[in-house]
Structure formats: C-alpha cells, structure tokens
C-alpha cells in the first residue's frame, strides 16, 4: 500500500511541470503593430491584411488558422497598385519564452486567389 502511494506521488510530482507548461497561454505578435494576442482574428503585414482568422491547435507546437486575405498588388508600383482578395491558411510555430509568455516566433501562410508572386507569407522564419 505504501509503495502504491509513493509511486502515485512520484508520478504526480513529475507530471506537474508538464501540465503547467501546457496550461501556459500562447501568443503571436502582429507583424505590423508588434502587439501580442491570443488567437487573433486578424494579422497585419505591410502589404497583406489577414482577417476572419479561425484557429485550431492553439497552444501546441504549431497552430493553424484559415481566413481571408487582402493583398496589395504593387503593379506597376505600390502607389498605383490595387488590392486583391483571397483565402489564406496560416501556420504559426517556434514558441519562445518572452518574460512569462510563450510567443510564436514564425508566421507562414499561403494565399489562394491572388497572383503567384504574392501567394506566400513568411515572417521571422
């Protein structure tokens, strides 16, 4: 009986740090404003705006979102360009501790419905 109790306490003590780590909140930094957010509904880049983001696997090593994209097409120049809309799939990964917060460092995405030259997003990867 005593061995069972000792074994149960040892398992509980060893699993506590893992459970605490999984319970920590994860954040992602908006590339344009540098603000941290959990499961952001939008992310803004210089020439791309992502909206309506819906996340799965948030807090795990990789989180995935799907949503809408508005891309500035800089042809013939950005000043004379236009915006095109498409659908986006975003993956955030590589969490690092910043103070007491776990922050996803890398943002990658693919946009459909826009010219191929504008179809990929990569930030801090």
Description:
By secondary structure, this protein is an alpha+beta fold. The protein has one domain. It is 18% helix and 50% strand. The protein is built from one helix and eight strands. The chain has one helix spanning 2-23, and strands at residues 26-29, 36-37, 43-44, 48-56, 62-73, 82-98, 101-112, 120-123. Strands 1, 2, 3, 4, 5, 6, 7 and 8 form an eight-stranded mixed sheet that branches. β1 (26-29) and β2 form a beta hairpin. It is elongated and about 45 Å long. Residues 16-23 have low confidence and may be disordered.
Describe this structure in a few short sentences.
This protein is α+β, with helices and mostly antiparallel strands.
Key words describing this protein structure:
1 helix; 125 residues; alpha+beta; elongated
Mean pLDDT: 88
In whole angstroms, the N-to-C terminal distance is 52 Å
Overall 3D shape:
elongated
Can you tell me the number of structural domains? 1
Largest sheet: 8 strands, mixed
Note the total helix count: 1
Return residue spans where pLDDT drops below 50 for at least 5 consecutive residues: 16-23
Signal peptide: 1-22
Keywords: Signal
Protein name: Secreted protein
Could you outline the blueprint of secondary structure elements for this entry?
Blueprint: H1 2-23, E1 26-29, E2 36-37, E3 43-44, E4 48-56, E5 62-73, E6 82-98, E7 101-112, E8 120-123
Parallel strand pairs: 1-7
Antiparallel strand pairs: 1-2, 3-4, 4-5, 5-6, 6-7, 7-8
Keywords: Signal
Signal peptide: 1-22
Organism: Solirubrobacter phytolaccae
